[in-house]
Amino acid sequence: MPPESILIEASQLSLSYGALKVLDQVSLKVRKQAIVTVVGPNGAGKTTLLKVLLGLIEPDAGHVTRSPLLRIGYVPQKLEIPTTLPLTVKRFLQLAYDRSTVAASSNVIEAALDQVGAPKVLDTPLQGLSGGELQRVLLARALLRQPELLVLDEPVRGVDLTGQADLYDLIAQLRDQLGLGVLLVSHDLHLVMQATDEVLCLNGHVCCHGHPEAVSRHPEFVALFGPRIAETMALYPHHHDHTHR
What is 86-147 written as a DSSP string? Predict the structure, then answer.
């Protein structure tokens, strides 16, 4: 792929909190229409890496390069809404608009909810949503930015197994339909094989990266997650049936 297909690139990122080194010379690239998944144990620095990429935290060393005027849609790991706050899905999504670039419109909001398969929750209080519905609403919120890059931190957190597979399928469909690049953090190793083009295994440093099947056989991956997980992942074939531009 030509260099202009790179949406975001991290080069040799390092970050410490006091004596604790959280990131150690971490590099990655996300290209147009590619899904890159970051996996790793708890405390591996996955969420910190996303925050550095999003410009929320400055690294101690290394740098992040983004394509000019890159639009990013972000789906956070969790959203805490006070039970006493009267906030419907419609109002929540209205608040997400960048009013300088997008006119607030019920039609646009409804279209975004249709796009993520949640057309019936428009007037539902956020507190009344199921885990899967909330994740779809957060995804709709990210899409309202008309992103070129979609960044998702544990996008299936709090969702049952069937719902997890459906959400990963939806993310892949959005990538194909909208030509998005996707960067996601996931603990759902049994689904990674089907959901991604490239896996980066992180444990402070990059243990291994590449095609999911190759990563699942890498000694450092096996050492982190155990041979049973690696063998299970190897059973899930990765169907690379889309075309990168």
Answer: --BHHHHHHTT--TTTS---HHHHHHHHHHTT-TT-TTSBGGG--HHHHHHHHHHHHHTT--
